[in-house]
Write a structure and sequence with these properties.
Chain lengths: 441, 273
């Protein structure tokens, strides 16, 4: 099925055919405490302490929280504020590598997931610090613990990778097809579902073939090709494309009986159980015309962006922008000392000539954004409300259903910063609701 | 000819009588002082007092819920007048003026990126704190200018906001609008100010801006006892309860964050009320 709205940007998948390469061990890593949505973990190491690779540096603080782990063996040099991809400095742990790169002795495989208790599997996934690797970095174990009144009958694996430039999920599916399939089986066991669907855009048919070939006999996993269209990788749109089910406004996938996980997350879940290894590295697509040798790189969490770019031959020409993630939803970086996080799927370096600096002009009511919005919202009206500081009226336009995909801004003839409007608008709308609640009580 | 005239006259008479009766029966008691107070209030309907407008405020005044000094934009003479009407005592209070605690204009504050988006400080602040390396300084996108009902804020050529003291009524709306919390209401008789809000350590602050406060404590130490300027968290702050008076103190500041600003309101312009 095809969803309404969306756009067809140029895909620029420069690195689709490049096998993943690993980065050599570095001297210094900075692991931020907060790399996921939810509460940052509580610190359990101190300055000067020796740590080994995979050793937990924090413990979860609450249910929606996961630990972070040491990317290599070495010494905790400093605990303090460090540059963070989100812009403002945030607390992190600096580790000086000792060059030995030995795994923590507690790290042992837990055997076949088919023989393990569901609760145990869920704990293993949490303790491995697993978050959604597609970009939003929502703790995986939370998604795997749906409330009792929301029965789940289907697991969907997101291999759409609709963002232009990014190829990290593509490489995961090609290179680790067997691991991904085992991971899917594991997730199915945790959720207690019989069936799983994998959604892959038509421009990655080779990945679909690889996965199909790797499917174990005892699992009902079907691989489907879906239309190549942005934002196909949005979970709500993938659910619709694969099943025809609609997630109700303001709801989550579990409201329609589905849990969606990224294919990379499935692989990491498998590794966390089979090898006992926590999430300390991930595939990052380093790409764009301003980087010398675009590549898919296995990068340890905590590596600074500058080091990753240097590994790929450095920057060339005049660089306009460096973005964490893809060009549609990624976050622009101010500071190349910011570290790669668990949710960093790509580092996109665009040349000066490729980015446009512009001033948004007034809305001309052409309606392009309304046609492009895959959530059936009215971006033009919401943008005007935010511009005029009329935040209290945003609720009527269902601003919280906006997925910030940027399709509206992409087609806007007046080049209005619509997504920025909505990010601000969501914040102010939440404040407004809080103020209302305060007034009542 | 005669008939229609008579009918119209009769309708007019009856309606007029009806109105006259209604005016008596449904009359709303208005405190005679309300009109007097309304005339005395600034009449800008700026909302800085928290009420919907000046009329609302004057009603609250008569009910005794608020005092004359609760209109933040009124001057001492207005407050005295209101006090006389209401028969309450009005204490002396120093006139205040808004001051933007940043002089980090384009030529002195260093940038770490280019901001290309909605021209609003509050929105720009959400994106890594704006384009300046200093995450405390004025963003120059005029949120304060927009909320000022008195036209008392202008944007300088250097791209930062400046308060026009003669127009400022210290209503405090700009203080609330600034996402960087850069604006303070200071007494008009204070002459020496620290125009910086950067609490980073000296080296980082200097790297970010040529006129930042480094937290070097030279100003604090220049007082033999009872310092009127105190450094806390690498940022000097003037104690506005007893502001320093000797302008020579600004000489010790290595960056110029400590400066003299005089709010000369002798030649006050007519307020645009």
């Amino acid at each position: 099925m095809k969803f309404k709205g969306g756009i067809h940007p140029d895909y620029h998948k420069l690195t689709a055919d490049q096998p993943t390469v690993s980065m050599p061990l570095l001297k210094r890593y900075v692991v931020p405490l907060s790399q996921h949505i939810g509460a940052p973990g509580k610190l359990i190491v101190e300055k000067g302490q020796e740590v080994r690779r995979g050793q937990a540096l924090t413990s979860p603080a609450g249910f929606v929280s996961v630990p972070v782990h040491a990317p290599t063996s070495g010494k905790v040099k400093k605990i303090g504020e460090f540059p963070h991809p989100l812009g403002k400095p945030q607390p992190g742990i600096e580790i000086t590598a000792d060059g030995e790169d030995v795994w923590c002795e507690e790290i042992v495989g837990h055997g076949n997931w088919r023989d393990l208790e569901v609760a145990r599997l869920r704990d293993l996934i949490r303790d491995a610090g697993l978050v959604g690797l597609g970009g939003a970095a929502f703790p995986t174990h939370v998604k795997l613990s749906p409330p009792k009144d929301k029965p789940i009958d289907l697991l969907i694996l997101n291999g759409a990778e609709c963002e232009p430039y990014l190829t990290s999920d593509h490489r995961v599916m090609l290179e680790h097809a067997a691991g991904v399939m085992e991971g899917i089986g594991l997730l199915m066991r945790v959720l207690g579902v019989e069936k799983a669907l994998v959604g892959i855009e038509t421009n990655k048919a080779d990945a679909a073939k690889a996965l199909e070939a790797a499917c174990p006999d005892d699992l009902d996993i079907r691989v489907h090709l879906v239309e190549t269209k942005y934002p196909q990788g949005s979970e709500k749109h993938l659910i619709y494309a694969l099943t025809g089910r609609r997630v109700p406004a303001g709801g989550l996938p579990m409201d329609s009986g589905v849990v969606v996980q990224n294919v990379g997350t499935a692989l990491s879940c498998y590794e966390a159980v089979h090898l006992g290894r926590p999430l300390t590295e991930r595939i990052v697509t380093v790409t764009g015309s301003a980087v010398k040798d675009p590549a898919n790189v296995m990068v340890r969490v905590g590596t600074s962006v500058a080091e990753v770019i240097d590994f790929c031959g450095g920057l060339t020409g005049s660089v306009g922008k460096v973005i964490f993630g893809g060009p549609m939803m990624g976050i622009v970086q101010f500071n190349l000392n910011a570290p790669v996080l668990k949710g960093t799927s790509g580092i996109l370096c665009l040349a000066e000539s490729e980015i446009s600096q512009f001033e948004g002009s007034p809305c001309i009511r052409c309606g392009n954004c309304v046609d492009a919005c895959p959530m059936f919202l009215v971006p033009s009206a919401m943008g005007l409300l935010v511009e005029r500081n009329r935040f209290a009226d945003l609720g009527g336009y269902h601003i919280m259903d906006c997925i910030e995909c940027g399709s509206c801004a992409y087609v806007c003839l007046s080049r209005r910063p619509l997504v920025q409007f909505f990010k601000r608008g969501k914040l102010e709308w939440r404040e407004h609701l809080k103020a209302l609640e305060g007034g009542v009580s | 000819m005669l008939m229609p005239t008579a009918i119209l006259a009769a309708i007019g008479l009856i309606s007029g009588l009806g109105l006259a009766i209604a005016a008596r029966v449904f009359a709303v008691e208005v405190d005679p002082r309300q009109e007097e107070i309304n005339d005395g209030l600034p009449g800008a309907n700026c909302g800085a007092c928290g009420f919907a407008g000046c009329a609302d405020f004057s009603a609250a005044l008569i009910e005794g819920k608020v005092g004359p000094a609760d209109c933040p934009v009124s001057d001492q003479a207005t407050r005295q007048l209101l006090g006389e009407i209401l028969g309450v005592a009005v204490g002396e209070s120093a006139r205040k003026v808004a001051l933007i605690m940043c002089q980090g204009g384009l030529s002195v504050a260093h940038k770490e990126g280019r901001y290309n988006g909605q021209a609003s400080c509050a929105s720009a602040d959400l994106i890594g704190g704006g384009e300046k390396l200093c995450s405390y300084g004025c963003l120059g996108l005029a949120d304060c200018q927009e909320v000022c009902a008195f036209g008392a804020i202008e944007m300088t050529e250097e791209g930062i906001a400046r308060v026009i003291p003669s127009r400022c009524t210290a209503c405090g709306k700009c203080v609330a609008a600034c996402p960087k919390h850069l604006i303070s209401l200071v007494p008009t008789d204070a002459e020496i100010h620290v125009l910086c809000n950067n609490t980073d350590k000296g080296a980082a602050a200097r790297k970010a801006c040529d006129v930042s406060c480094l937290g070097c404590k030279k100003c604090e130490k220049s007082f033999d006892e009872d310092p009127r300027i105190v450094v806390h968290n690498y940022l000097a702050k003037v104690d506005y309860r007893k502001p320093p008076t000797d302008q020579a103190v600004v000489e010790v500041c290595p960056t110029g964050a400590l400066t003299v600003r005089l709010f000369d309101h002798q030649d006050q312009e007519q307020r645009p009320l």
